[in-house]
Design a protein that fits this description.
about 130 residues, Arc Repressor Mutant, subunit A
């Protein structure tokens, strides 16, 4: 059984290396969905490119997003009924799909935000626990 622990630890380390490139972070899909919902609440309807740029801006360019990542999140959220879409004209005069948060999306965001804050507080307390035997 010890080998499964080593294998699991190796996977976790590999995930950590992949997720942190040159000091920047790629959020998990669950976290990205939460960030997208929060961005739509803060900014109102936006197109996908605008959402991605806003997230990068607010994160101080610490979050890495590419088109595939942001659009996968938008598809997931739309399929779950957490966002809706409509076509509109972007600032450059091109047709663009605009995304808005739905009532269900607001409820999910509230629940996930509460869960995130609770979990963050617990992790913070655990990480602040002094080491024994050092």
């Amino acid at each position: 059984m010890w080998y499964s622990h080593i294998f699991y630890s190796t996977l976790m380390w590999d995930d950590h290396r992949r997720e942190h490139v040159q000091g920047k972070t790629r959020p998990s899909s669950r976290h990205l969905d939460l960030i997208v919902l929060r961005t739509l609440v803060a900014m109102g309807p936006m197109h996908g490119y605008g959402i991605a740029r806003r997230i990068e801006q607010v994160s101080g360019n610490q979050v890495l997003l590419n088109q595939g990542t942001i659009y996968a999140s938008l598809v997931r959220l739309q399929q779950r009924g957490l966002i809706s879409t409509r076509w509109g004209t972007s600032g450059s005069g091109r047709q663009a799909k605009y995304y808005s948060i739905t009532r269900s999306g607001r409820k999910r965001l509230a629940a996930e935000t509460e869960n995130w804050q609770r979990l963050s507080a617990v992790i913070g307390r655990l990480l602040a626990t002094p080491e024994v035997g050092r």
